[in-house]
Amino acid sequence: MIIDTTEVQTINSFYRLESLKEVYGFIWIFVPILILVLGITMGVLVIVWLERKISAAIQQRIGPEYAGPLGILQALADGTKLLLKEDILPSRGNIRLFRVGPSIGFISILLSYLVIPFGYHLVLADLSIGVFLWIAFSSIVPIGLLMSGYGSNNKYSFSGGLRAAAQSISYEIPLTLCVLAISLRVIRWNMNSFLSIF
Questions:
Q1: Which residues span the domain enclosing 157?
Q2: Are residues 71 and 104 in the same domain?
Q3: What is the sign, positive or negative, of the torsion defined by CA atoms of 93, 94, 95, 100?
Q4: How many independent structural domains does the chain possess?
Q5: Is 0.85 surpassed by the pTM of this model?
Q6: How far apart are CA 33 and CA 122, in angstroms?
Q7: Can you tell me where the transmembrane regions are (predicted)?
Q8: Are residues 60 and 118 in the same domain?
Q9: Same structural domain for residues 121 and 182?
């Protein structure tokens, strides 16, 4: 039996193309997620930059204009400073509550991404109660803020935790009303239906 080498090369090239299609398909799953995360990050940086510029103009003071061109690198410097800060634990506080509080807030925010669709068929958990689950997960954050303030065993930190929790709730109520108003326009209550609006 004689095997033609050109046929073998053609078969191998088709096999490579099929395996590359699978790899490209897997990579394209993460492209909408990456675009969304980068868009949100850039939006936050622009909003922080505008807030600093506007508040500096209102207060008639020199804003963060000297950290890079037009003060753009100030947000990067603030983020670096925040990451490199020393983690101080209160000596007479409840260490368990002090450490678990921020974790509860962070984990509840990450869990709320379960029901957010990143594409038409790209959602981690397609549930029929997606909107309500998102609202429930996002409303756990003030509990973590209160736990952190209370766990420090300091009245000033506790009042700061109360203030942060009240601020979080005051932002959350209008956001919840807006989301529920939009969801009333949708026939089904899962998050994939929101894509048909846009």
A1: 90-197
A2: no
A3: negative
A4: 2
A5: no
A6: 9
A7: 26-50, 104-123, 129-148, 169-187
A8: no
A9: yes
